[in-house]
């Protein structure tokens, strides 16, 4: 792709090329002049005088043309330099202007979170950690800007189907800077298996399973954007090009609209520790991890409370991940939340974030 500055360079090369070529031709022609050394005679002297005068006149004209050409080249070079500087300024201004809407939007959504108590910054990711305490529950919000799609990954417990490990173990083993628990699971014969459709590294772990009841799939596509929803056939999910993802229940928001929460999940349990993931219009991610004392429904947050909170914060799509004793938030090697089991629970899938 030819940038504005490169286009200007090409223009001035085309402009000065013929002038430089004329100078070279003059020098070559001058070097090729040969003097007539025939015997002296009046006629010959007159011819020599006339030839010399003609050559002198030609050289004078060439000198004048050369001076004019040099002056023209100098002026062209000065104009080129000024134009290049002007174009560089224009490009710089354009870049600054282009980022203004993004900055304004980011300030607007950040203002609803307050001030971060911890920030992680690299050329791949930016993480801001906030405390949330609306009065009825306490927890944490983690706003994430993925500057590179590979700054977020999903892992299986101990890297095999049926394996389980705590989110902290997964974070440490893979060298991540942060991590949360991901999808739901089912236990069988001492092993812990991911629930329903699960994708890892672009491949289906146990094949595709059509969405049923209140289940959904949520993950990241190849461009680093959050994708999710209910899918009745594999082709409809494949169109989104998911790189990884897991399944659980239910969907809270879709395209900025509150979805009806199934009655079962409103009361079973009423309150609980929760882990929720969502996205903003600019593809930043937001994770909420809410604390609770147990899984008996007396502490933590209701799904309706989190749904309303996320909607007021401007989140577009939001998905409730596994909660209760599974809720985990690890940042910089430490457990940030207070697991309701008193210790982290081993789970089969984790969403990890990398510097």
Automatic annotation (TrEMBL):
GO terms for molecular function: hydrolase activity, acting on glycosyl bonds. InterPro entries: NAGPA. Keywords: Glycosidase, Hydrolase, Membrane, Transmembrane, Transmembrane helix. Coiled coil: none annotated. It holds the Pfam family NAGPA. Residues 174-354 form the Phosphodiester glycosidase domain. The chain crosses the membrane at residues 12-33. It comes from the Bacteria. PANTHER family: N-ACETYLGLUCOSAMINE-1-PHOSPHODIESTER ALPHA-N-ACETYLGLUCOSAMINIDASE. This is Phosphodiester glycosidase family protein. It comes from Paenibacillus mellifer.
